[in-house]
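To illustrate the input format used throughout this study, we show a single complete record. The first block contains the structure-token representation of the backbone; no residue identities are included at this stage. The design step must infer an amino acid for every position from geometry alone.
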């Protein structure tokens, strides 16, 4: 049996294998990337060289540069903070409060937030920072 050998270059390029590879790369990058979306109040967080990831929580208190206090996206007064935190604790049984304070906020307001949270039984506090470069 004699086979015919041809040394002609292929004139047609098949894109099906290239398409499969690109699709697999897109799926890989979508699955391995993290989408972090911070909803709510925008603040300029202080920097830290050794910041760690906080545990996911629903109890986030944000303090803006104008000393406005928010739970989630709802603005409240500092005197109503303990009541709102207690309501959130009844819905979500968590013992961690994340404090997102602008870097220009005075420390006494942060201490008032911590005191209000301690008065309703929260024992763990995390101050959110940004990674310094």
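Output of the design step:
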């Amino acid at each position: 049996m004699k086979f015919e050998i041809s040394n002609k270059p292929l004139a047609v390029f098949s894109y099906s294998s290239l398409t499969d590879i690109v699709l697999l790369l897109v799926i890989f990058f979508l699955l391995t990337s993290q989408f972090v979306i911070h909803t709510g109040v925008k603040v300029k967080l202080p920097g830290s060289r050794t910041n760690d990831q906080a545990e996911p929580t629903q109890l986030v208190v944000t303090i803006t540069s104008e000393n406005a206090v928010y739970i989630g996206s709802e603005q409240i007064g500092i005197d109503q903070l303990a009541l709102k935190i207690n309501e959130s604790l009844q819905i979500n049984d968590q013992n961690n409060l994340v404090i997102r304070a602008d870097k220009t906020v005075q420390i006494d307001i942060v201490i008032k937030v911590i005191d209000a949270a301690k008065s309703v039984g929260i024992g763990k506090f995390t101050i959110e920072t940004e990674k310094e470069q």
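Structural context for interpreting the output: The longest strand covers residues 96-101. The longest helix spans residues 16-32.
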